[in-house]
Amino acid sequence: MTDISFDDLSDDALDAPLPTFAILARFREEAATEAEAIDALSRRFVEAGAPAATVSTERRDDDSTWLLVARVVSISIDASTAVAGVVEDLASAGLRPDEVWVHRQIA
After folding, report:
1. Residues in Cβ contact with 65 at an 8 Å cutoff, skipping those fewer than 6 apart
2. Which of 20, 36, 73, 92 is the most exposed place for a label (fewest CB within 10 A)?
């Protein structure tokens, strides 16, 4: 095994930024209108102190349930770690999405 010290690393290696990912999380929200559904989920994020999110509508089910997608930006070493971090952050804030996935790497 070879020991590596910080002296062996170049300045470029130490300054390399971590990648940034757009993570999407799908939620169900019951409301009469699309605007009410988006407002309710956005309010839940704020009240829970969850990561900042942009909320949009995916579709409406027949029974006044709206499927909403919250977009969260995460900086992480890789995509799977970014998703795991967002899931953990949401769960600790009391928000349980139906599904979470990487939309794309943005930086």
Report:
1. 28, 29, 30
2. 92
How many CA within 13 A on the CB side of residue 79? 11
Which of these, 103, 43, 45, lies nearest to 74 by C-alpha position? 103
Phi, psi values for residue 84, rounded to 5°: -60, -40
Mean local confidence (pLDDT), 74-97: 94
* pLDDT tens digits for range 8-39: 555 555 566 899 999 999 999 999 999 999 99
- Ordered DSSP codes for 11-61: HHHHHPPPPEEEEEEEEEEE-SSHHHHHHHHHHHHHHHTPPP-EEEEEEE-
Q: What is the pLDDT of residue 14?
A: 57
Q: How many C-beta atoms surround the C-beta of residue 80 within 10 A?
A: 11
Cβ-contact 14, 30 below 8 angstroms: no
